[in-house]
Amino acid sequence: MPKEEDHPERGGDKESKEERTQDAREDTVRKRIRANTPSPHRGNTPQASPPRFVSVEELMETAKGVTNMALAHEIMVNHEFQVKPAELPEESLERKVKEIMHKAFWDCLEAQLKEDPPTYGHCIKLLAEIKETLLSFLLPGHGRLRTRINEVLDLALIQQQAENGALDISQLSKFIVGMMGSLCAPCRDEDINKLKESTDIVPLLKAIFSALDLMKVDMANFALTSIRPHLMQQSVEYERSKFQEFLEKQPNALDYTEKWLEDTARCLREAGADGSSAASSDPPSLLPVDVHNHAYLRLLKWDHASDPFPETVMMDHVRFQEMHQEAEQLVLLSTVLLIIYTTTGEAISGLPGLMETLKNTVNVMLADMHTPSFSAQEALATIGEKLCVELSQCLSQHGYSPFSADRKSTLRGQISASIQPDNTIRKLMESRVQNYLLASLESSQHKTPPSLPGGLAPVSKELKELAVRFSRLVNFNKLVFSPFYQKILHQILSAGESQT
Fold first, then answer.
1. Which helix H or strand E contains 480, and what residues bound it?
2. 201 and 170 Cβ atoms separated by less than 8 Å
3. Nearest Cα to Cα of residue 236 among 2, 483, 495
4. Residue 311 gets which letter from DSSP?
5. Omega cis (within 30) before 117
6. What number is the average pLDDT over the span 55-66?
7. Does position 58 have pLDDT exceeding 80, yes or no?
8. b/e per residue, 291-304, with b = 16+ CB within 10 A?
């Protein structure tokens, strides 16, 4: 779409206009980041993380200078972060104004080309913008393509051809589409093929601009993937320095972090004392890394409604809440599936596809388990009924003895009882999930994934994905706040040893 400063009705000082545009862009970035940065005071039930929509220019400016802490943090910890085309809300005033302006421009362009002789003022400005965009896609090694674009889209020559009535817009459009096909990502090949089939000049130019906008997004995401490793150290140093500035103004800004680590060390000492042999009256000594890893694991069982979250992980408060909920759902899902297989016996263990069918059934019923309207008791009762029906059908189809009423009653009762926190099977699966996540932290430095505990094979894919995200988030947090953690852990463990 043509830039607003190219519109024939617009005038004014170009330099001041660029300054106003830059100020408006920076203000927009600040507002979007404030809206997307999680706050501990926005309620206790997290929502699914919404995609962060930022423009290409905003992303690159932030990545170059690491000038925005929240956006840089988002890029580092969220490897699924991508630039998305901004979409104005339906029925919004901004969207209506934009549609009216665009329609007016393209109608004007079509009218100019239908004049006798045609007027090419608007068209040449479009070609200039297309040329600028194509050149922006080139890498330093694309010297031949750069020369070719400059030769064919020579604006001075195009202007002369227009004045002499010798300008061939169709031929230039074919060159542009061909060049776009050479530079675009494979996912855009279908869009480029549709452009090649178009013959009407105005619709073709309009479609070219739409495709170029998508290619800009693709290029930004490619650049994002490329710069992420180089951004790591800058982002770590930036976040650490900003927190240090805050700590100098607020000396008690680590109170909750200290309590978090102290409570973890105390729990580990008590557990060690309980498990120590009778010959040894002293609990085993604690290592800082063990206390630290167990402290992060506690964040996945945190009581967000009553306990203040540690300051050093506050920026990822919502992320830890979401992982907490995912872990709880995996525990309950694996509990129900284990009950099914222990109750029904060997009959269904080798049936192809049955596990996935049962898993999907339970997953659908547990999808809203963290919403206020969810009733766990009703959901588990419904799950028990549906699974009895599916198991009966499956056993009869494969020639096994019918699913008796007693077995159905036992299965429904055990599934309903799994909602209790002290349920034996549920406690077992919770312990195994927690141990796997802890092992993933301990092994993340060695790049060797831990072995999967028994009973978790049906949820292995989801559990491994959760472990990867959890480890990535924890390791980045350790990098940023390591000087603060080392000091606190040294004080805590030294005090504990002296007391012992």
1. helix 460-499
2. yes
3. 483
4. G
5. yes
6. 48
7. no
8. bbbbbbbbbbebeb
